[in-house]
Each structure stands twice: as structure tokens, then as C-alpha cells.
Amino acid sequence: MQTLIIACGALAREVLALIKLNDWQHMELTCLPADLHLRPEKIPDAVERAVEAARSKYEQIFVAYADCGTGGLLAARCEKLGVKMISGPHCYSFFDGNETFAERGEVTSFFLTDFLARQFDAFVWKPMGLDKHPELRDMYFGNYEKLVYLAQTEDASLTVAAEAAAHKLGLAFERRFTAYGDLETALIC
Amino acid sequence: MSDEEDDLILDELSDEELVLQMHDDLYDGMADEIYEAVNILLKRDWVPYDVLTKALVEGMRIVGIDFRDGILFVPEVLLAAGAMKRGMKILKPLLIESGAPQLGKMVIGTVKGDIHDIGKNLVAMMMEGAGFEVIDLGINNPVEDYIDALKRENADILGMSALLTTTMPYMKIVIDTMIEQGIRDDYIVLVGGAPLNEEFGKAIGSDAYCRDAAVAVETAKEFMARKHNQL
Fold this sequence. Notes:
The complex is a heterodimer of chains A (189) and B (231). Chain A is an alpha/beta fold and 189 residues long. Chain A is 43% helix and 19% strand. Chain A is built from ten helices and seven strands. Chain A starts with a strand and ends with a helix. Chain B is built from ten helices and five strands. At the A-B interface, loops of A face helix 5 of B.
């Protein structure tokens, strides 16, 4: 049965890696721009457009997004469209494992994934205006205590990048290897 | 900005021109210029309350509108707020001294599990600017903190803020606890934060969802006026 994964662009590498690792030849991937996360209210419409465009060509469609700041709106839309999605609030949670993440309750931690470690400037530093106004840093991050890098892969260069990001934000650093967490189980389902 | 504007001497502007210039400077987040202009208006015998409302609050109201309309973004709003804060630093002690009108008292804080306080800080500043006394509980507040502060401070308004979809449901826990304790109708409950909307505000039993700081001020004023009319 041919399955299309409609994923957030921030998950592209991870989904492709899992497809290769598991030899899921029945799966294809299409991605929506990762910067939709800067305006999460736009995610449900974007997902709906992608689902409708692909529906006639695939027997099954899976949406590789968690709630991602949509406040339940994406789940409601997916239900209406009759497609499944990833459970949990966001990718930090499902990479760490939704249950584990909730139990940890790390309110004062700021999270990076492999994608965000790689794209820190484009997706964090610049959109927050910190490239032009670094003096705003503590208004955004003053209540955080540490940056937790949730690593999907063993890549020393990403650890260096994540640690540099922590330093830039004035936060303590912790690396936690998660691999793909609940993403893999969600795709198997 | 042109060289001509760079050379602008604020002290040479008429009152009306200076106030309009202050709106522009707030919009551009120019804290030093705001500091200078506030001092000029005070030197010209403006009462502190008028400097605050006509120059600073009105300027931030314009910033709020353009933020709502997607013309300005969070960094610009933060710079504008920083400029207003600079002006407020001069005005605050003078306002207390001059007995500026007090419209009511608000207890405000971000909900349990949420440490994102940018929106809450903007609301607190604008409420203060509009003449409300603000008791700022800071971040990560459990229900007891809100209720203790409301009672202790004999407040009129509760303001709750959340940035995360995972923490916003906590607002309902606070309101439900107020209902259980029979105190819900003693207070005006306003809620806000990026992932909220009007529907959510109604569903959890708040009095109003406020999409930005300027709307919070207007809503608070409206509810306080209704409250006074009921007395």
C-alpha cells in the first residue's frame, strides 16, 4: 500500500533516515516549509492543502506533525480529513518520548533538535531579531536555565553547534541522545 | 532615516509636534529620544499623567495595532516597550507623587509551567500606564498564588498569560478553583497569550480574551466602568 508522509520540513532528514533504515519502500515523503512554525496558525490549512492534493494518488497519508503550537486545531483538521498524525505537543516531546518528556517537566529548558542545531541562526537567532538587537536576548531567554540538545544522531559537529548556541543564549548546556524517539513508532503505526 | 531627521532637535518642536515625534520614536524603539522628550514635556509643565497617556500610551497603542496587523513583529514591539520603559522610569515616581487617577488593581502572572513573560510584561506596563495598579506575580504561578494575591491585594482584575498550548489549559484550573471557592464573580478575569483565542477564553469561563496589551487595557477599562455602574 503506497503511503505518503506529509512532514514538517524540520523532520525531513529524520523521516528519510527512518525510511532508509527500515527499508520502507512503500513510503514517500513530501515536506511543508519548516518556517510554518513561526506562524503555527497556518499549519492546519497548509496540511489540508497538501492532503487534498495527494489524496487521489496514495492509498494512505500520514501527517508527520505533532500539535506544534496549533492548540488542537491540527488534530481536529486531521480527524476531519481522516488522516493520522503524531501524538504529543511538539518534536522535542516525541523525540524524547512523549511520556518521558511530560514526566521530566523541564519548564526552564530550551530545546534544540538536530535540525535546530543545524539551523539555529535561521530559525531562532534571526527570526527573534537577535542578529540586529542582541540586547533583547535576556527578554526572550532570561527565564530559561539551560539549553538541552536532543540529538537524533551522533554528530560531533552538531554538538559543537548546539553548545555554541547555548553559549550565545547565555544558558547552560546539556546533550541528550534520543535517536528518533516516538517518531519511528508513529510511522510504523 | 534621513540626515535631516537625524538632526532633529526635539526641544525646538511645538508640543503637538513633539508628541507626534514621540509616537514615531516609540515605534522605532528609540529609548534615548523618548527619555529626552519626556524630560522636555515635563520642563514645559506638562503633568506626568498627560505625558504618559498622550505620548507614551498612545504611541504604544499604535505599535499594538501594527503588531496585530502583521506590520511590526515581536522584536520591534520589544524595542518599543524598552523605549516606553525608559520614559516610565522618569514618570513613575512623579505619578505616585501627583496622585494620578487609579482605575483599579490587577493581579497578573504567567500560569504554572510557563516561563514566557514577554506578553505579560507588556500588558503590565500598559496597564500601569493607563492608571491601573499592577501586582505582578511573575512566572510559573500555581492556582494558590493567584488566589492568595487576589484576596490579599483586594484586587479587581486577574490577568493570566500563557504562551504554550500545553500550559494554557491551566487557566481553566484557576477559574474552576475560583468557582469552587465561590469567588469567581468577585473578579474580572482576563486571559491572553499567543495560542489563545476568543473561543478558548469563553470556553474556560474567563470574562475576556485580550489579543494584545492595548486590547487588555481597553477591556479592563470597560469592565471596570461596568463594575462601577453596578455599584
